[in-house]
Amino acid sequence: MDAGFSSYSSEMNKIDTRPVLREPAPRPYIPPLHSSRNGTRTYGDRFIPNRSTTDMDVARCLLAQPNRQKENNGIASPSKEAYRKALADTLLGGRTRIFSFRNKPKSPVKSSFDPVSAAPAVPARKRRHIPQSAERTLDAPDITDDFYLNLLDWGSTNVLSIALGSTVYLWNGNNGSTTELVTVDDDLGPVTSVSWAPDGRHLAVGLDSSNVQLWDVNTNKLMRTLRGIHSSRVGSLAWKSHILSTGSLDASIVNNDIRLPNHDISRFRSHTAEVCGLKWSNCGQHLASGGNDSLVNIWNLGQTNPSKTFRDHTAAVKALAWCPYQNNVLATGGGGADRSIKFWNVNTGACLNSVETGSQVCGLLWNKNERELLSSHGLTDNQLTLWKYPSMTKMAELHGHTSRVLYMAQSPDGCTVASAAGDETLRFWNVFGSPEEKKQAAAKSVVKSVGPTNRYSHIR
């Protein structure tokens, strides 16, 4: 026993009343402090102080402390008590245990390898810059200012078609050149719709006379004229492979197989006013139609009645856009008395969301590379609005047009959007940016190559 504990042991011996020189009674079994099985340590129900890890000076001070407190109970002042606590904290370091029952843990071995610092840092994704002004502006005189027509389309070979009055022009996005395709006679025109076939070579031209012309743009030759399919102007067109669907002021939709002599293969009748919007789904299973009767119908080939009819809009529905990454989701936009964008599940018929835009919705386009939607509008701001989908928070508003932005088309790479308005201008917007996997192709696009000297030119 250490010297510091001799007085304490003598006091304990004085009060020990056990008999001496007798055989001790049998002791009960006491389990060991710990046992080792397969390298694991199991502790029992008894703890023995470990001298090697016990600070005897601190233990003696703590044992004597209660007696000193009893002696000084009557004379301790608040200042002395505060001093005593401060002194104890300084000397004892906040320790209150007398004995230590386990070995101190080994200090960890410092290693030069830091897994946190060794892991490669993931760079934060930069927010895409959205230019607020048009990349290029072209003059588009005599463009018809009519909400119910579709006078602009961008083909898969990077050629843009636009109808100005009775003339159809082609603007080549690869070299910036402009050519005239056709000027129809006064008794046939004006042109009321244009739409590229998927091959990017053939262009359908709808006329005010109810005829539809099919042109080969490589040879500038009229291949065929579809006559007698409608009784009034053809304001909307949509392709599905070799099938051309046409929508008219007579409220009917005709599906034409252009390979057959008798091209009229089926008709859809459900609208009660002009069909001003037509769009085949990306998978080719559904045809969406919007009309001046505020209805949206979903059609399937081989059926005479629409599979779904949406009646929630309160104005004409021209803007239709199928989601590129959810084949069953359709976005629709309502006219001046409605001013909303709605999203539909065409399988269930449920309206997934409805957003009030504050102005007439003239067109809708999805970003092919990001979850974004672009809408074009009429009064009062005549702007293009970029939305984040599905939250539908505004990302940007693009201003420049001074009249209703009636027509929109998207470049084949999905990066650039062309818009035409009643202010007789055609503007190109780099609103959807350049996808990382297509940087090389985007660098060659004509929008990127436009210089400051030819920023404003004429289509004719």
Distance between the ends = 112 Å
State which percent range the strand residues make up: 35-45%
Structural class: mainly beta
Average pLDDT = 83
Which quaternary structure do these chains form?
single chain
Q: Could you give a short account of the major beta sheet?
A: 5 strands, mixed
**Residue runs with pLDDT of under 50 for 5 or more positions:** 1-15, 440-456
Number of helices: 6
Provide structural commentary.
This protein has 460 residues and is mainly beta. The chain has 6 helices and 31 strands. A 5-stranded mixed beta sheet has the order 28-29-30-3-31, with no helix packed on it. Strands 4-5-6-7 form a 4-stranded antiparallel beta sheet, with no helix packed on it. The chain starts with 5 loop residues before the first helix and ends with a strand. The N terminus is likely disordered.
Nutshell version of this structure?
The protein is mainly β and 460 residues long.
List the helices and strands and how they pair.
Elements: H1 6-14, E1 34-37, E2 40-43, H2 56-71, H3 78-92, H4 115-118, E3 136-139, E4 152-154, E5 159-164, E6 167-172, E7 178-183, E8 191-196, E9 202-207, E10 212-216, E11 221-226, E12 234-240, E13 243-248, E14 252-257, E15 264-269, E16 275-280, E17 287-291, E18 296-299, E19 308-310, E20 317-322, E21 329-334, E22 340-345, E23 350-356, E24 361-366, E25 372-377, E26 384-388, E27 393-398, E28 407-410, E29 417-420, E30 425-429, H5 439-443, H6 446-449, E31 456-458
Please name the defining characteristics of this protein:
460 residues; mainly beta; five-stranded mixed sheet; 6 helices; elongated; disordered N terminus
